[in-house]
Amino acid sequence: MTENNQPAADPSTRTLNHVTFAELWREGPGKNFAFRGLGLSTACHWKEGYGWTTGPEAVAAALRTMGEVMRNAVPARDAPAWLRKAHIAGALSLANALPDMLALPEQWDRDPLLAGLPDGSVVDLRFSDIREPTREEYVSKRLGAVPNRDASMDRFWGVLKLITGDRDGYRRALRAVMGSAILGHAERAFPIALGPSGTGKTVFAETLMALAGDYATAMRGETLSAGRGEHPTAIAMLEGKRLVVASELKGGVWRSEFVKRLTGGDTLSAHAMRQDERSFRPSHILLAIANPGDLPQTAILDDAMVARVRILPFDNPPEHETPHLAQQIAANELPAIVSFALEGAKDVAINGLLHILDQCPTILDATADWQNETDSIGDWIRDRCQTGAGLWQERQKLLDSYQSFAGQYAAGKLAFYSAMRERYGQETTRKGKRGFVGIRDDWA
Known about the structure:
This protein is α/β, with parallel strands linked by helices. The chain is built from 15 helices and 16 strands.
């Protein structure tokens, strides 16, 4: 009997429409599925003892299960057109519009201190505790391996020893970067692995990508340079990621505002292909890989870039290169490497990545060198200008001299004037022309 004391409907006599299909789906095996959006391609499948799965396997399971629900509900010859196989996706689009059948993107992998593992378990990154997931945690991504403290990572340990040598705090710093690659916490930090070819940068980065598994993605390094542009979905692909590796930088000038958006921890807005714009909280660390001559310049080195950028020097080439080393490490040593990274994650969760990096004199020295070399306005002032009380020069002449000096690395007019105001205060007017006090360029 129903709540209104009416006889319950016999399922075999129901008229099968979108509403009753949704009811049958929800009452039966549909409870093991969730959808990130409208459409079959967004299906996620809960498997007891393994957790949530996504992708083609989950879509196939949803399609198969929907067919079973339909066959059990109505004979195939009596099925309306919308229930036939070609229309299943459309039927699902209507059925899963019911709120309890949708799991919004922000619900998935939302706990920054949990990470999925390939065997379906999850690891608590605060304590390295491994347990089974719950359905409500919506963990769908997986790290590259299940951790194993007793496994070997001799090859990767050799790479770390080559990179760090005996330099104080450097090994801990690289371990912290690895830990940040699996933590879902965005910090205002932008580490850059900088050094010539053959010094371990690529091996380190590819190992981090393999370590982070589903939580990692790559970005074209040239996207970070001015004038290169970006695909409209470049930011959208970062949602839910914990590691973003930008390689193959091509020099030029940093797109500073874009870089600061990607590394600031503030809410990002983006739209995926053929989808509406949406906002999300970032959960990634951005790691750039560059050779010294390919690192973009900074037209104006502001406080925000100084606060974020930390240079990780890779400057010890091996005596003999090992072919396919990154692939060998990924194939044989990931369980031990995941355990090593978990120690780094605990360290970062307690102390913060920037604090750990700033405890390493090697990184501080390399970062100071970068700051001195990358400030084009500062270089121009040191090379061409006099500074001191009583000096004054028209701002247009200063701009012309600076842009001639800096060439392709020069800041634009408005940015240049803004930077000059930060250094020398507001312009003053003399004989109807505006200029800056305290500086003069004898070349102008």
